[in-house]
Amino acid sequence: MDQTHARALEALQPFIALATSNSATSPRFISNIITNATSAPNTYVFAELLGTTTIQALGSPDTPVEYQAYLKLLEIFAWGTWQDYQETPNLPELSADQALKLRLLSLLSLAATTKPLTYQSLINALSLSTAAELEALVTTAIYANLISARLSPASNPPTVNVTSVASLRDAPPHSLPWMVTILTEWESRCGQVITGLEAEIVRVKTNAQKRHAKDQVYQEQVAGAVQRRQAQAGPGDGGSGADGRVGKSGMGRGAVRSTTMGLGRNKREADDFDEDDGFESDNGDNAFRMDIDEGAGLSRAGNRQTKRVVGRRT
């Protein structure tokens, strides 16, 4: 409940108390309650007053005709409009305060049902004479927090742009079945939307599970392929050489190169070769000698430096 409706309901409470008191016995007294309630400031809702037993008693056939019309007048203030008052015969005359209030309440109903809300349509519906009277009425409704609106007199046609309307109009009893039908249809549509959302959630979850299972199978296949490749590239197919290349015989390029040189690759291997080389003989003048340089093989610069001395010992 908004503040405007709460204030209107609070302003109506004294009149409800009078209508439910023991003194509310005569039709004249009850009709005065209706007149005062519809004339008082800030009273814009009347369903609670209309529902009291004493007010409803005015509709009894035993009630004089001049007082029966007050019940219809209160119904128009509760959910009717200015046009309803104009079209209903034998209603009590309205005071200036009552006429202003009924026009304000009618403006709320028109703002909620009529689009666009032009100056001319409002002037006709509220029985006003000039645009100035209409602008004064709209301004009063704005300051009373009944509507939020903006006047556009320079537009073509001039219009009243209403953005919000206070919930102060009561629903007539004959509209309740229609409202129940609308709410039932709305509930059915909401149920269909919820069912659709639940089905969509199930579909999304199912697709996510399928994608997850597919990803797992793919990962397992990749892992198996990697293991098979590692098994095929194991030690049995030859090691790597000095420069990282693998030979069929298990020897790298560096190993092949060292064997083709014929001699050791360092000084110690050369000394070992010189100690027992089998090329020196001590058989007299015809002895044969071969000297081999210790640096035979590869030098640091990578050049072959070999020295051979062949001759007879003197």
Automatic annotation (TrEMBL):
Residues 223-314 are annotated as: Disordered. Residues 1-165 form the PCI domain. Residues 223-234 have a biased composition (Low complexity). Residues 305-314 have a biased composition (Basic residues). Keywords: Signalosome. Residues 235-253 have a biased composition (Gly residues). The keyword Zinc-finger does not apply. The keyword Aminoacyl-tRNA synthetase does not apply. Coiled coil: none annotated. InterPro entries: COPS7/eIF3m, PCI_dom. Residues 271-283 have a biased composition (Acidic residues). GO terms for cellular component: COP9 signalosome. Belongs to the CSN7/EIF3M family. CSN7 subfamily. This is PCI domain-containing protein.
